[in-house]
Every structure is written in structure tokens, then in C-alpha cells.
Amino acid sequence: xxxxxxxxxxxxxxxxxxxxxxxxxxxxxxxxxxxxxxxxxxxxxxxxxxxxxxxxxxxxxxxxxxxxxxxxxxxxxxxxxxxxxxxxxxxxxxxxxxxxxxxxxxxxxxxxxxxxxxxxxxxxxxxxxxxxxxxxxxxxxxxxxxxxxxxxxxxxxxxxxxxxxxxxxxxxxxxxxxxxxxxxxxxxxxxxxxxxxxxxxxx
Length: 203
What we know:
Layout: H1 8-11, E1 27-33, H2 41-51, E2 56-59, H3 61-66, H4 68-76, E3 80-83, H5 96-110, E4 114-115, H6 124-130, E5 135-136, E6 141-142, H7 152-162, E7 168-172, H8 178-194, E8 198-199
Parallel strand pairs: 1-2, 1-7, 1-8, 2-3, 4-5, 6-7
Helix pairs in contact: 5-6, 7-8
């Protein structure tokens, strides 16, 4: 549960970040990390379009640079985009100056006020500097679709077990996650709708 749903003490490390939205509204916020990737991002966009659902995609700047068509498809379909650094950097192993510069390099392609740090960790100095200019968006539920130890059924089970009002739910439109995502995402959307959830994106 520490991974799937982050405890309060960890959330308190980044107090200005969004971890969960209004707990009194039966809404969820779908997010996707690490794209855009040609083999999976268009499939996600097409699937969401069939359901009429909008999501937020936290994109790696280098991927946006390499795959501008997939980036534009996300934007043109009305989804929100966010910054996920240019090279998917681990903040704890990167100097503050290099990390901030890398985020700004990504912003030259992404142009968003939303930021999510890869792996969910970064140094306090990095957090303080970037939170002056970006709204940090973390998660209430990470599905772990990227895990080679889990199957699609396990990812779906995580969605069913941990989703609650205001959940920010994280999937990954990446090659690593593709198999689990193709199984779990449509079934998760069906289940969430059956439970009466509506879908929102960030302002």
C-alpha cells in the first residue's frame, strides 16, 4: 500500500503538491506518465475518446521532441499536458541546477504549468525552486502498470481497491507498461463509470 497509495507522512514532504482532489466529490483525475510513445499513446487517446474522457499526460520532453505528432494528438483531443522533465531525471541523484534546467528544457516543448517529478522524489531545494513556477501534481493511486511482477489483472485490482473520491490515478503510456495498460485501462474505465465516478482534469 505504501506504493499504491502514499501515506500522509510522505505527502507532507511536498505540502503544495496535489495528492488528492475534493474527497466530497465522486470524481477522479486520470493521469498518464512518460509519453508520448507512438506504440501506445495514440491507443490511449483513441480509447479515451470513445468514452468521452479527458485526462492529463505528464510528458518527457525528449519524447515530445522526438514524437511531435503524438504530442499534438493529445493536445488536439483536448487533454491536459504536464512536464515530467526532459530526460526522466531522478531528482535525488541530480544537482538542483541541472534538474531545474532539465525541467525548463522540457517546458520549451510542453508549455505547461503542471509538473510531476519522475519517481515522485526530488530534493527539497528542487521542490522549493520549481514550486515557484509550477503546480506539482503527485498521485493518490499509482496503478503500478509498469511492474514486471504484476499482470493486467493485478493493475485492475489496484484500481478497484484504492480508488476513492478525488483520487488522482496514475497510469503510464510507456512501452514498459503497454501490456498491462492494454488490459487494465479499458476495464478500469468501465468499472469507474459503473461506480458512478466522473472524470476531471486540472485547471
